[in-house]
Amino acid sequence: MTTTTLVLAASVCGAVLGAGTRSVLVGIRRPAVPRSGCCEVATAAGLAAVAVRWSTGHVPPAWSPVPAALTVLAVALGATDLMQRRLPNVLTCASYPVLATALAPWALTGRAGATVAGALLGGIAFGGAHLVIHLVRPRSLGAGDVKLAGALGTVLGVLGPPAVLLAAVMAAVVTLALAAGQALLGGRRWQDGVPYGPGLLIATWLLSVTPEAGLVT
What are phi and psi of 91, to 5 degrees? Predict the structure, then answer.
């Protein structure tokens, strides 16, 4: 299968999954309703990027389900947090089994012990660090952010300790960029604070599709 064909197939799958994501967001309690086409385009673009990285040999085949799953989760959770500044339990809790399933193929390539250990330690470390911040300054970091950090930490832990630290820095940079954008545009959407979830999701996704950075090999 050529790269072009693979990218087109991934884009179509992304559009379908994006439509499903939008339906889920509409159906949850206090529904977030993104503009028509936003979820479809975002998911299609994300999966197309994963397909390009995979087809060019930058992402190992057994690892590719991880950034693919992160793409879908990032669209669903990111859209909700950007629109409502909240991360619903139904989505954050679902991210744990989704990412565990996505990590399974990587574990089955002879890395079961390292994958399980990395996922557990990463989830505890990344989630625990955010829990401490939440307990000290609950208004700056919500409980949903803590749950999401724990789930994403499982992926970061498998990538390695540098990824855990780098993700924290990248998430902070994205959050600062959102705050700066709101200040420059004079927006008032996030009067109670800038959402942190999108930063976590973007950072983890970027690290998952760049294994040549010395993480997953």
Answer: -90, -45
Mean pLDDT of the chain: 88
Q: How many domains does the chain have?
A: 1
Structural domain including 29 reads 3-213
First-to-final CA distance of the chain: 23
In sequence order, the 6+-apart residues with CB closer than 8 A to the CB of 153 are 122, 123, 124, 125, 126, 127, 164
CB 202 within 8 A of CB 77: no
| pLDDT (0 to 100) of residue 133 | 93
Residues in the chain: 217
Task: Check residue 214 and give its pLDDT.
Answer: 47
- How many whole angstroms separate alpha carbon 130 and alpha carbon 53? 30
Residue type, position 72, single letter: V
Global pTM value: 0.91
Q: Give 126-144 pLDDT, tens digit per residue.
A: 999 999 999 998 888 889 9
Round to whole Å and give the CA distance between 83 and 61: 34
